[in-house]
Design brief:
The chain has 226 residues and is α/β, with parallel strands linked by helices. The protein has helices at 13-25, 42-47, 52-56, 64-68, 91-99, 121-124, 144-162, 173-188, 193-203, 208-225, and strands spanning 2-8, 31-34, 59-61, 73-77, 88-89, 107-112, 129-131. The protein has a 7-stranded parallel beta sheet.
Length: 226
């Protein structure tokens, strides 16, 4: 399992530098930038003191959709929306969730949105899980660099404990399960978008053991249908 930090259209070079420094401090190595060249500014290197290698190895994508296929699990960080049907995990809850999926997920992308507006609705629709930082109500926002630091710290234990976990038998098994479930629903509940979204989001929170059992269940259902 590996965790990649993704900054979507960062406007300020200082925030990119701070993010690079934060993830290196906590033992991570992968930073992706979407549709921005802020990391090329001198200020980014100045703020990233000691983490120039992170900046030098940044991978860039034109948009979130183009990187989606490169990852088994995409997590969007956002403010929690009241009344939303989505399940929002705090950083500590997200850490526990990823520990449960040590052998089912190989590549994880953790998305951070724009300084002013965060992730768009279209970008959030491409995510598998959602996370937010619980904050005191009268001070409701974090600087982008601070947000990356919070998640880097919260997920550092996951990175240390299961960062080297590798199971050829189970690689991408969560991604395969989502595809299997989607195909099955297309056959038995055609057009029911809300049901499909609900099921897929639930599958994204299963543990390794539950993912294996769900594969078996869907296989049995498909055999009966055939």
């Amino acid at each position: 399992m590996s965790i990649t930090f993704v900054m979507v259209e960062p406007a300020r070079a200082a925030n990119v530098g701070a993010a690079a420094r934060a993830i290196k401090t906590m033992g991570f190595t992968q930073l992706v930038i979407v549709n921005s060249e802020a990391h090329k500014e001198e200020e980014a290197r100045w703020v990233a003191h000691g983490a120039h290698d992170i900046l030098d190895n940044i991978v860039c994508y034109p948009d979130v959709e183009s990187l989606r296929s490169q990852f088994d699990l995409v997590i969007g960080t956002t403010a929690r929306e009241r009344g939303s049907a989505r399940t929002y995990l705090s950083p500590s809850e997200l850490s526990g969730q990823l520990e449960k999926q040590a052998t089912s997920v190989q590549r994880i992308a953790l998305l951070f949105g724009r300084e002013a507006s965060g992730l768009s609705n279209e970008e959030l629709s491409l995510c598998d899980l959602y996370s937010y930082v619980p904050l005191v109500a009268d001070y409701p926002s974090l600087n982008l660099g601070q947000a990356v630091m919070v998640y880097s710290y919260a997920l550092s234990d996951v990175n240390r404990q299961i960062g080297l976990t590798h199971s050829e038998a189970n690689i991408r098994s969560l991604a395969a399960l989502r595809e299997k479930a989607g195909n099955l629903l297309d056959n038995v509940a055609e057009g029911d978008t809300k049901l499909k979204e609900w099921l897929i989001e639930g599958l994204n929170r299963l543990s390794d053991r539950d993912i294996r059992m769900a594969h078996q269940l869907f296989n049995d259902i498909q055999r009966k249908l055939d």
